[in-house]
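Entry for the shared binder. Reason: the reviewer on the internal report wants the predicted structure included alongside the sequence.
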Amino acid sequence: MNRKTAATLLIHIIAWAIALIWIVPFLGVFMAAIRPMVEIIRGWWHVDPFTPTWRNFIGAWNHATAPLAEGMLNSFRVAIPATIVPILVAAIAAYGFSRFRFPLKNYLFITIVILMTIPQQMVVIPIFRIMKDIGLLDTHFGLILVHTAWGIPWILFFMRNFFTTLPIAVEEAARIDGASDFTIFFQIVLPMSIPALISAVVLQFMWVWNDFFLALILIFSPDKLLATQRIPLLRGLFHVDWGVLAGGTILVMLVPIIIFVLLQRYYIKGMIGWTSK
């Protein structure tokens, strides 16, 4: 075995070991979701007896206090517009940064990059006060607005790097034929940028869907709570039903997992497109 083969084998062993370490806790949650508690009380790895059931999922979906059915609908109401709007705005701005010259362009871009490093915890109090002053506290629209503002800087940075890898000759040819900048952007640049756009969609949707911190600060009416906010409420007040809690966790996890699986091919293309120039 030569050195290159040995190095490849070692990398695969390490990668599989990390994957196994990551998946073991998930298996525990999954087993708690699909099996009665009496079967896993001595450890989920004991499979005798093994009686799969949908009771925990149904209990979480139709929970009396915090039904996940309503929570997931609220999460979709927030996640879909909070994904589409920042990607559209950031893509247009990123095209301007990659193709046009204007005063203070580099300084403005550096400022946008710096904004990406600000933790949410540092600005949550000003955000709360602003949402309260403009009457958007405890509204899904206010949460969408915050997620949109938070997503624009990183999407702009990501799309700007991708646009710099696209051939300018095609755009110049269209401009000679009389196409406007907006026509070039929407009919030529965007179709060529579909892998990068899908990558941004996957990441932004996952981050918004999985968000708990901003939702906890800005949403507090029981009927407006998002799916991530309802999971802690599934445990009950006097008794913790770990099966229902695990079932609700799996249900909330399924949405980003399904989206990633369906769009994985485009996601990988978009992630490596501008790095492989």
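Summary line for the report: The chain has two domains: 3-53, 68-273.
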